[in-house]
Write a structure and sequence with these properties.
Elements: E1 7-9, E2 13-15, H1 17-25, E3 33-34, E4 40-42, H2 52-62, E5 75-79, H3 83-86, E6 95-99, H4 100-109, E7 112-116, E8 119-123, H5 145-148
């Protein structure tokens, strides 16, 4: 809101509205709206985060980041109609998998999530989604490949 105090990140100080919205996407947040005298007017909605079944369904449907095809292990679930700004629902048709990079572009650079023929995509308005991130390379010198992830950087 114009004239409102800026968002404040504990231990850091004021942050931009867009950064605050992005941080709230994967946090447990209870918005509390007060009047100018501090009287509580609204205490938000319940069930912001998807439950285990919803998470599994979104992962099964999207299989990768809808913006750049990054693997599920690099993704988080995003509300298409934003929870905090647009009062978006935590329903399957309002949730998609996005990696941290694409999630940041949605919040910081106005990227949009679109649905065509049951498939979701994300990218700048009017442009194709970005190229996929570089693949994760395992260190061939490690005897146990499962441990290689600890050595990548």
């Amino acid at each position: 809101m114009p004239g409102a105090d800026p968002a404040v990140l504990d231990g850091h100080g004021p942050v931009s509205t867009n950064l605050a919205r992005q941080l709230c996407c994967d946090a447990t947040v209870t918005p509390v709206v007060t009047d100018r005298n501090g009287k509580v007017l609204d205490v938000g909605r319940k069930e912001r985060l998807p439950n285990a079944a919803q998470r599994a369904a979104v992962i099964a449907r999207d299989k990768q980041c809808v913006g750049c095809a990054a693997p599920v292990s690099r993704c988080q679930i995003h509300h298409i109609q934003w929870w905090e700004r647009d009062k978006g629902r935590t329903d399957l048709d309002n949730l998609v998998l996005v990696c941290w990079r694409c999630h940041s572009h949605i919040h910081q650079h106005g990227w949009q999530v679109r649905q065509e023929h049951g498939r979701y995509t994300a990218g700048p308005p009017g442009q194709a989604p970005p190229a996929p991130p570089e693949p994760l390379h395992l260190d061939n010198n490690i005897e146990n490949p499962a441990l290689a992830l600890a050595h990548t950087g």
